[in-house]
Amino acid sequence: MALAFLTRNVSNIITNPFSALGSVRTATKRAGGTVHNHGGSPGKRLGVKKFSGCYYQYVIPGNIIVRQRGTVFHPGPHVKMGRDHTIYAVTPGFVRFYKEKWMRGQRSFVGLVLDRGEVLPRDEAARGRSRYCGLVNLKAHVPPQESINSA
């Protein structure tokens, strides 16, 4: 009897090894491992920290003006760039953003002006150099001022 069972099902066992064991469930979903938008790292808080515009933000030495990856903005007058491309103030003043022609395109610059109404880029031929700490050109001709007590 057992021999009859085997002879009847030998061809079935050879073609399908799971038929003697019963039904085997196959996966209907993919294996785990691909998860989109999962984990990640916190934001680095990049961007412009001090703005120029209608209300002219005032900065003091050491204030961070722009945090950036790479040189989106380049340093102008009275600012410097840190090793992680952070632009910071080296003198007190008002923030100004401006663009200049550079090679075939334009570059964005960040600078400081010492007076509220000034604009960048500065016309040094007409206005002279922008200096800090009240330095003056001693070789420039200064007309003599009339004294108040001369009358």
Automatic annotation (TrEMBL):
GO biological process, one term: translation
Gene3D superfamilies given in the database record: 2.40.50.100
UniProt GO molecular function: structural constituent of ribosome
Keywords: Ribonucleoprotein, Ribosomal protein
Recorded GO CC terms: mitochondrial large ribosomal subunit
Similarity field: Belongs to the bacterial ribosomal protein bL27 family.
Protein's recorded name: Large ribosomal subunit protein bL27m
